[in-house]
Design a protein that fits this description.
- The complex is a heterodimer.
- In chain A, the strands form two sheets. In chain A, strands 2, 4, 5, 9, 10 and 11 form a six-stranded mixed β-sheet that branches. A five-stranded antiparallel β-sheet of chain A has the order 1-3-8-7-6, with no helix packed on it.
- Helix content of chain A is 0%, strand content 53%.
- Chain A has strands at 5-7, 10-14, 19-24, 29-37, 44-49, 55-58, 61-65, 71-76, 85-93, 105-106, 110-115.
- In chain A, β4 (29-37) and β5 form a beta hairpin.
- By secondary structure, chain A is mainly beta.
- Chain A contains no helices and eleven strands.
- By secondary structure, chain B is mainly beta.
- Chain B has strands at residues 5-7, 10-13, 19-24, 31-38, 42-50, 53-57, 64-68, 74-78, 87-94, 107-108, 112-116.
- In chain B, strands 2, 4, 5, 6, 9, 10 and 11 form a seven-stranded mixed β-sheet that branches.
- The termini of chain B are far apart.
- Classes of the chains: A mainly beta, B mainly beta.
- The interface between A and B is medium-sized, with 26 and 32 residues.
Chain lengths: 116, 117
């Protein structure tokens, strides 16, 4: 089945540093979503992207939908301790390229640790 | 708070047993999705219901089944439970079916942690 390759798997950074993570696939996606999950909780939607090339910000978070529709990245600027968690990318296959389902395909996640 | 509720929060049961997980979607959302999260497999799509009808199936075992009721809440039934079924089960909801475009963000509930002993 389709897979999303998310990297890096984990990051250990100092408070105040910027963070960058990305997802790639061999398949074309119509939608890219970025979620954050904290221990014992469900994924929380951070940013949704619907158009190739789209760049969207949510506070210190910025995400982009790749031009090829096969990749996306998430940047976090000036990290703070509460940014700790696992960040997941998720994509919905392009319905104009044969995808016919509404479900999301998830990456394996990037575990972010922030040292105060 | 995403607006999606799931019960119970925790469930501990024995192998061979059957359990039912319940999900109430956000107000106005017609689609409900069930996902399983385990340490080695990550988040895996199980099944989607849209306005009461099954819309899509993922890697759902035959021992598992789901339904969506007229009030749009959904239940996931897991039977003949095995040790390997221990996982977090999440429900998500979205406004549309997701098969014909349009904004269709999925919002996740807090999950049910199932432990099979």
């Amino acid at each position: 089945g389709q897979q999303l390759n998310q990297s890096p798997q984990s990051m250990f950074i100092q408070e105040g540093e910027d963070v960058s993570m990305n997802c790639t696939s061999s398949s074309i996606f119509n939608t890219w979503l970025w979620y954050k999950q904290e221990p014992g909780e469900g994924p929380v939607l951070l940013i949704a992207l619907y158009k190739a090339g789209e760049l969207t910000s949510n506070g210190r978070l910025t995400a982009q939908f790749g031009i090829t529709r096969k990749d996306s990245f998430l940047n976090i600027s000036a990290s703070i301790p509460s940014d700790v968690g696992i960040y997941f990318c998720a994509g919905q296959l392009g319905w104009d390229y044969g995808g016919s389902q509404g479900n999301l395909i998830f990456g394996k996640g990037t575990k972010l640790s922030v040292k105060p | 708070d995403s607006g999606v509720t799931q019960t119970p929060k925790h469930l501990i049961t024995a192998t061979g047993q059957r359990v039912t997980l319940r999900c109430s979607p956000r107000s106005g959302d017609l689609s409900v999705y069930w996902y399983q999260q385990s340490l080695d497999q990550g988040l895996q799509f199980l099944i989607q219901y849209y306005n009461g009808e099954e819309r899509a199936k993922g890697n759902i075992l035959e021992r598992f089944s789901a339904q969506q009721f007229p009030d749009l809440h959904s239940e996931l039934n897991l039977s003949s439970l095995e040790l390997g079924d221990s996982a977090l089960y999440f429900c998500a909801s979205s406004p549309r079916s997701g098969t014909s475009g349009g904004y269709n963000e999925q919002f996740f509930g807090p999950g049910t942690r199932l432990t099979v002993l």
